[in-house]
Amino acid sequence: MVDLGWKTKMIPSELPNKSPKFTSKLQISIPPPKVRVAELSAASEMACSAYESYLRLPELKKLWEACEFPGWKSESLLKPAFTALEITFRFIFTVLSDGRPYSNRRQWRRRLEELARSEVEIISLLCEEEEEDTETRGTIPVVDLTSVGGAVAPENSSAEVWKMADGTVVVSQVSQMSLLPRLGVWPELEEVVRKIQYTIECQMQACPYTLGLGEPNLSGKPSINYDLICKTAELHALKKCPNDDVVKNLENRAVYYVHQILESWIRVGKQLLERISDEIDSQSYDRASNHCWILEKNMDDSEPD
Length: 305
Fold this sequence. Notes:
Strand order of the largest sheet: 1-2
């Protein structure tokens, strides 16, 4: 017989009659971190003093703060930029002349070429801004016949006198103290040097002068007095860190050069901030915005790769 009470004997279902409602909001509970990060605190005076002494920052600051061209408003801005570029040339020589078999020269070469390219680009932007301002236009020291004694030696001279189609006399001089032209005689570094020189040629096209570091200078433009501005002789005297005689390894030199380059660009950033503040106060918003863009690029390129 059929059991008519089969419904009452069935196990009641615990499932709800209605289907659950789905929400578009994703709710995730994140547990609190178990490890607390200590708050950043300022370094002690002893640590700061040791850091500055290690990088020889007091000597570098003297080079940056020396005002030798009263009519050149951008001296304090461009001097540390040229310092960083010249130290980069020394860094290139140190790294690419490393004879250790496990040194990845190809990756080092790629990064150093990119570093030099970024530095030259920022310098060219600063020079272009200087030429657009009527107060600073034409004030950067360039090599002329007066600065080379009124004449150029016929032999063993790094200066060339060109007469342009309009009768203008132009002196194109290659720096005698910069490392870049001298590094080009090394077969291992010749390709890197040529790339940097071509970068200078391309980036400085919008400027009425060039850097004078061995670039082709196809336009026949005058060269800035690089050695006088950068103080290359005094700068090369700071190539050894204080503990170089104790810690004799290439890693110590690499750290030394990297931080000197970084501190030089930090100096450029500080000078840009002061200039931006003055331009905002004087309502020169167009120039302030241009310098803000250069400052942003300066900070982006200064970050370690």
